[in-house]
């Protein structure tokens, strides 16, 4: 893939100024040659730069932004056609991702799109085709690929300094996101498996590839999941969590057991236990996953190279497995993956 590279200021248009839009704005503000050239939202208050009222399931801090130099739009269709834009950053409800991304790439823009990529495999295929035909970079924001603790998990699993991985359990649970108008609507977000647990499904695929079989069931009340990903020669991989009662705090953790050690993400930090019985906290670089994700994407745009650390083909495959787990949850039967995912 060869795409035009940029040596000057990169001009960005953000579509959607909710929680994720605010997170992305904060990251761009730390990059000297990133210019917010256009913003798009339906709410005039948001277009004024007042994002103090947006909610989310993690505390990122409310902020006001100076949009005085930015073009303001209430129609994304108008914004993506602006000739000066280099990048369109999509922070909209998931059901809108394909239309906006395809229109932006067709108009010659690179696209950073929040995860999930889309709600259907056919829409993922359409987005991939548009990226190929337009020769523009498409990256989906799977932020855990840039999150320091999960980068440490990746190193633990791939370097095998403590032997091969025998089992890994991912947990991610939160209250039903009643702070959002669209997230609880399954037709717009895909529900908890597609929106929330997609993070951990992507990590499992990144670390271990496609499983041979999966089995899934409901985990108590709410939009929940307990799933096993079955690999012929191991490891044992489990994914648990979902949306529980409103107001429940966000909890995310993992536990990876190797032949001679165990790495665990806990509320107290990242802990390593070894055969001697020693348990110690692992120092993690002071880095923000969203900042790293966006800085990486901008580097890809500047250098005209594909986003190898987070390819859209991987994002499409992650959605396919998430859809399979969602389907498997309804029956509780073991399902062969190759019958669903090429």
Shape: globular
CATH superfamily of the largest domain: Dihydrodipicolinate Reductase, domain 2
Count of helical stretches:
11
CATH class of the largest domain: Alpha Beta
Give the helix level as a range of percent.
25-40%
Low-confidence stretches: none
In order across it, which strands form the biggest sheet? Answer: 14-13-12-11-7-10-9-8-15
CATH topology of the largest domain: Dihydrodipicolinate Reductase, domain 2
Nearest-angstrom radius of gyration? 20 Å
| Average pLDDT, all residues | 93
Q: What's the number of extended β-strand segments?
A: 15
Q: Given the helix and strand composition, which structural class is it? A: alpha/beta
Largest sheet: 9 strands, mixed
Quote the beta fraction: 25-35%
Corresponding CATH architecture of the largest domain: 2-Layer Sandwich
User: What is the distance, rounded to the nearest whole angstrom, between the alpha carbons of the first and last residues?
Assistant: 22 Å
- H/E topology pattern: EHEHEHEHEHEHEHHHEEEEEEEHHE
Number of structural domains: 2
């Amino acid at each position: 893939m060869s795409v035009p590279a940029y040596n000057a200021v990169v001009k960005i248009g953000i579509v959607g100024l909710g929680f994720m839009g605010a997170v992305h704005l904060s990251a761009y503000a730390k990059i000297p040659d990133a210019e917010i050239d256009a913003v798009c939202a339906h709410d005039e208050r948001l277009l004024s730069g007042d994002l103090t009222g947006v909610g989310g399931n993690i505390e990122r801090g409310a902020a006001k932004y100076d949009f005085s130099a930015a073009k303001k739009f209430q129609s994304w269709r108008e914004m993506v056609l602006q000739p000066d834009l280099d990048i369109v950053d999509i922070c909209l409800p998931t059901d809108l991702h394909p239309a906006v991304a395809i229109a932006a790439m067709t108009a010659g823009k690179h696209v950073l799109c929040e995860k999930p990529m889309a709600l259907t495999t056919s829409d993922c295929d359409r987005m991939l085709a548009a990226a190929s035909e337009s020769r523009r970079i498409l990256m989906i924001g799977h932020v855990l690929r840039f999150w320091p603790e999960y980068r440490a998990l990746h190193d633990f699993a791939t370097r095998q300094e403590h032997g091969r991985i025998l089992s890994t359990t991912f947990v991610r649970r939160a209250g039903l996101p009643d702070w959002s108008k669209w997230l609880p609507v399954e037709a717009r977000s895909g529900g908890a498996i597609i929106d929330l647990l997609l993070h951990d499904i992507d990590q499992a695929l990144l670390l271990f590839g496609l499983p041979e079989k999966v089995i899934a069931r409901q985990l108590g009340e709410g939009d929940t999941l307990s799933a096993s990903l079955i690999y012929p020669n191991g490891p044992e991989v489990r994914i648990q969590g979902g949306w529980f009662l409103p107001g429940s705090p966000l909890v995310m953790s993992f536990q990876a057991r190797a032949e001679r050690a165990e790495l665990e993400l806990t509320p107290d930090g990242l802990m390593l236990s070894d055969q001697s019985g020693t348990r110690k906290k692992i120092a993690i670089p002071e880095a923000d996953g969203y900042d790293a994700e966006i800085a990486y994407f901008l580097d890809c745009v500047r250098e005209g190279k594909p986003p190898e650390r987070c390819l859209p083909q991987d994002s499409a495959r992650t959605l396919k497995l998430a859809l399979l787990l969602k389907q498997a949850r309804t029956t509780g039967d073991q399902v062969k993956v190759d019958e669903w995912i090429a």
